[in-house]
Amino acid sequence: AQKVTQAQTEISVVEKEDVTLDCVYETRDTTYYLFWYKQPPSGELVFLIRRNSFDEQNEISGRYSWNFQKSTSSFNFTITASQVVDSAVYFCALSDPTGANNLFFGTGTRLTVIP
Amino acid sequence: EPEVTQTPSHQVTQMGQEVILRCVPISNHLYFYWYRQILGQKVEFLVSFYNNEISEKSEIFDDQFSVERPDGSNFTLKIRSTKLEDSAMYFCASLTRGLGNEKLFFGSGTQLSVL
Description:
Helix content of chain A is 0%, strand content 52%. Chain A has strands at 3-5, 10-14, 19-21, 24-26, 33-39, 46-52, 59-61, 64-69, 74-79, 88-95, 103-105, 109-114. In chain A, a hairpin with a 2-residue loop joins strand 7 (59-61) and strand 8 (64-69). The radius of gyration of chain A is 14 Å and the shape is globular. In chain A, strands 2, 5, 6, 10, 11 and 12 form a 6-stranded mixed beta sheet that branches. The mean pLDDT of chain B is 90. Chain A binds chain B through residues 35, 37, 42-47, 50, 52, 91, 93, 98-108, and chain B through 31, 33, 35, 41-45, 48, 55-56, 89, 91, 93, 95, 100, 102-109, 111.
């Protein structure tokens, strides 16, 4: 069965600090996909990244970076030099290979960036 | 960037009433999804739809729920007889099969309040 754990319910940081959001997943599939979505206060879901299980290369996109460690079943997300606009709930999600976009979401981490 | 459009943004209904939530997916997309998010909780998969039929559905998607693509552009979620626990944000999403760079586009959601 698929499971996604985001142990950090809420995190507060001061602007310009770096912050890492943790995501640990469980799956029996050898092929799967991992995602991060941002949900700002307005409520929509904003796609951040999609990563397949065969691609363990870490990725950087501007101030965002992702660390995929298959050995520990983790897909952590780091925001460097956080800004107030980064304040949101961040969801990690997992899909199985049969329906690559039928996503199982974690419970989310609420990030508050204090000016 | 193309958008998935959902209407209405907020719907209030009485328990036992039927509601139809509407979505206009991105025009060249082929795969359609409904997710829901009960207030403060994680986003949950409801159903996926392809080629005019349901591909997959979760345990939540019981006989009270149905989906339809009535006219080739709209994608609707009907709840036949709403219950209090159906109160949630409902997200529509769509996808086109690309070449390994697929991205699931979410709409901004319909907040359903059942009184």
